[in-house]
Amino acid sequence: MSSMGQNPTSGLLSVKRRKEIYSLCQKYDILIVEDDPYWYLQFPSANALSVKNRGQPVSENFPTTASHNYNTSSSGGKSSGFDFLDSLVPSYISIDVDGRVIRLDTFSKTVAPGCRLGWISAQPAFVEKIQRITECSTQQPSGFVQSLVAELVMGPASPSDNGRGGSKDGSGWKVDGWVRWLEGLRGNYERRMQLMSQILDDGKYIINDSRRRSTSSDDDYEIVSKTKMYDFDYPMAGMFLWLRANFESHPLFDHYDHEKLGHAFWVFLTTEPYKVLTAPGSIFCPTDEIRQEKGWRYYRLCFAAIDNDLVEKHSKHFVDGCKDFWGIDDAKKLDELLKDDDEAAVVNAMMSAQVCRRAACRGPEANHAQGQFANDLNPIMC
User: Fold this and answer.
1) Cβ–Cβ < 8 Å for 240, 8
2) Of the candidates 251, 232, 243, 241, which has an alpha carbon nearest to the alpha carbon of residue 325?
């Protein structure tokens, strides 16, 4: 299970819920494989931001103070020695008393997207078995990547090998430097999350007003109503914002196939002047039944791939696209959007979206190399 920054929803499992699930696993003797690539990318400010803007937290199971210390808040708790690590929701392995948790970590979300290197934390009996399986299957991760990460964190093996670690003086990060790097990375992602969330929160309503004349006087008055186009929970961790489109409020909802309406919205956002590419919820549905029931209502947006100015720019483009799409009351316009669309085109577009997102993570040079599609369509939403 991925309980921290779960992809695509960015959900974060609380300590309370984690203990309840662990108790069930004890009762039925179930092992827990905790796959946590986003553990370091938790956003303690999300709950407080939701309280400030909406008057209610994302979840009652989390503290609303970003400085909460999970390690010392419980009786007998001990600090890790780093405020950053103390602010993170503890993993399953921190409450494991039976040796039933196998925890998987990775450098791929915190060093580089292509850094396919990680580590496993578990009781020795499990580790020994995994080691034997690895020796006759994958033959360990890439040695080249292992050497790069080792030198980055630990520094060169000796002065004579002309290597260079992650610190300015050429030595390795060591534990202190590694934690500082993680804290800085989390801070950058958290600011982008806050920026995107604030723009989307401010823009989720269409304001409708009409001027009327009073029957008892000559004074005019206005009636103001709001139409909610979408909603979302503030991301508690990870790299994504999971958004639910409120298509029930669209003028064509009762007159158009619902799945086609959701797909037309996805296509509409890719057109001028918006140029925004989202990941539709339908691609994450494990069954056709779920896709038909509710998958078409959801969209995944990524705030982690590019800098703040582009996050702001294209988040506003998304809001503008929503407002204009909700202004369409002629079904023929939707038919026109979808007339050249087919399943192959959707698959190709989504594959291009993934190329686009990965290129953005690698930098502008790689983005340019992917061609005009990657340059024209904003990668933050992929």
Assistant:
1) yes
2) 251
DSSP letters, 249-269, are GSTTGGGS-HHHHHHHHHHHH
Say what the pLDDT of residue 256 is: 97
| C-alpha count within 13 angstroms, C-beta hemisphere, residue 300 | 25
Q: Does residue 161 surpass a pLDDT of 90?
A: no
pLDDT digits (tens, 9 = 90+) for 114-150: 788 999 999 999 999 999 999 999 888 888 899 999 9
Contacts of 165 (CB under 8 A, 6+ apart): 151, 152, 153, 154, 155, 156, 171, 172, 173
- CA torsion sign, 179 to 183 to 188 to 194? positive
* 164 vs 197 pLDDT, higher one: 197
Residues 6+ apart with CB under 8 A from 231: 204, 243, 244, 246
Q: What is the largest CA-CA distance in the chain?
A: 93
pLDDT level of residue 216 (50, 70, 90 thresholds): low
Alpha-carbon span 279 to 270, nearest angstrom: 11
- The domains of the chain, with CATH numbers, are 4-149 (3.40.640.10), 150-192 (no CATH), 203-381 (no CATH)
Spatial distance between the Cα atoms of 348 and 291, rounded to a whole number of angstroms: 19
Distances (CA, A) of 333 to 149, 227, 256, 330, 340: 53, 21, 12, 6, 13
DSSP string, 10-75: TEE--HHHHHHHHHHHHHHT--EEEE-TTTT-B-THHHHHHHHHHSS-S-TTS-S-TT--TTTSST
Residue 276 three-state SS = strand
Residue type, 351: M
Question: Which bin fits 278, alpha (ψ -120 to 50), beta or left (φ > 0)?
Answer: beta
Burial annotation 162-194 (CB, 10 A radius, 16+ → b, else e): ebebbeeeeebbeeebbbebbeebbeebbebbb
Rounded CA-CA distance 115/142 in Å is 9
Nearest CA to 360 out of 331, 380, 344 is that of 380
The predicted structure's pLDDT at residue 363:
42
pLDDT number for residue 220? 66
Look-up: residue for tokens 């405020």?
Answer: 83
